[in-house]
Amino acid sequence: MTHLTTWKPVRRLGGLRDRMDQVYQDWPFFLGPSTGDEETLRGAWVPPVDVRENAERIEVTAELPGIDPANVDVSVQGNVLTLRGERRHEEVKDTETVHRVEREYGVFERSFSLPRSADSEKIQAKYKDGVLSLTVPKREEAKPKSLRISVER
């Protein structure tokens, strides 16, 4: 006699989820350096960033809507460019009822390795409409040079 079994993919995914959770618990380096404070890790958020490069410069653009630029710190140490900041919760008035909070709040930090060609002494930062734009010029000696060819007759 043949028995038919109903395939339940969700049940199989549940087991996969448990195994993945165990991997993350066993190897905390997936989350970056451990601070030992799990609440801090849960409260952190990561703003999206674009990094572009051309012959003249490297451009880093970060979306930071709703963040006061005074709450953003840009620093360079060695060849590492770091953005730090915080998006703070809006204050809820006693007369208001909050039904849903989907935006992420808290402290963020993003770090990027700069190539040796970057001139970290001349970085420019601009903030407009919730977008932070950083321009990292390249050193003159790193820029491509074109040679003129002389023709002999």
What can you tell me about this protein's structure?
The chain is an alpha+beta fold and 153 residues long. The chain has two domains: 8-35; 44-93 and 101-141, Sandwich (Immunoglobulin-like), CATH 2.60.40.790. Helix content is 16%, strand content 30%. The chain is built from two helices and seven strands. The strands form two sheets. Strands 1-2-7-6 form a four-stranded antiparallel sheet, with no helix packed on it. Strands 3-4-5 form a three-stranded antiparallel sheet, with no helix packed on it. Strand 1 (49-53) and strand 2 (57-63) form a beta hairpin. The N and C termini lie far apart (96 Å).
TL;DR of this structure?
16% of the residues lie in helices and 30% in strands. The chain has two helices and seven strands. It has helices spanning 9-26, 38-43, and strands spanning 49-53, 57-63, 72-77, 80-87, 106-113, 124-128, 131-137.
